[in-house]
Design brief:
141 residues, alpha+beta, Immunoglobulin-like, 9 strands, globular
Length: 141
């Protein structure tokens, strides 16, 4: 019986720890992220600067667990937001700025593209609720 209780306690502890590890970080009240430039509908060259800003949340590098901080992820031509409870992916549609950068030079092929920011927590996880900017469209010449 003692062995069963020990195993049950151990299993419960592991389950609790794994649930905490994947629990979303609560978004600070009133936190916002937005694209400063380019403006929605702008025509830009193939290589251009995107400037980011936040309100009611501070920026910190990935891995920094300071409360009420996050870092930028730029979603390019993403049809939907990254899944809740999973790290924001790193691929052609999701650029990470884990050093708390506030701007980036990006290069896109000619044509219409959408840009949107999402803040991630210390572990690149979306906040709950997600902190995202308005999606903008740029015309790359």
């Amino acid at each position: 019986m003692k062995s069963f209780v020990s195993r049950a306690a151990w299993t419960g502890l592991l389950l609790s720890a794994s649930m905490l590890a994947t629990a979303a970080t609560p978004a600070p009240k009133g936190a916002e992220v937005f694209i400063v430039s380019p403006e929605d509908g702008a025509t830009v060259p193939q290589t251009f600067i995107v400037k980011f800003a936040v309100k009611n949340i501070a920026l910190a590098p990935a891995g920094d667990v300071t409360k009420n901080t996050g870092h930028h992820h730029l979603l390019i031509d993403a049809d939907k937001l990254p899944a809740a409870g999973a790290p924001i992916p790193t691929d052609a549609n999701h650029m990470h700025f884990g050093k708390a950068q506030t701007q980036a030079e990006i290069k896109l092929a000619p044509g219409k593209h959408t840009l949107q920011l999402e803040l991630g927590d210390a572990g690149h996880m979306p906040f709950e609720p997600p902190i995202v900017s308005k999606k903008i469209t740029v015309n790359v010449k």
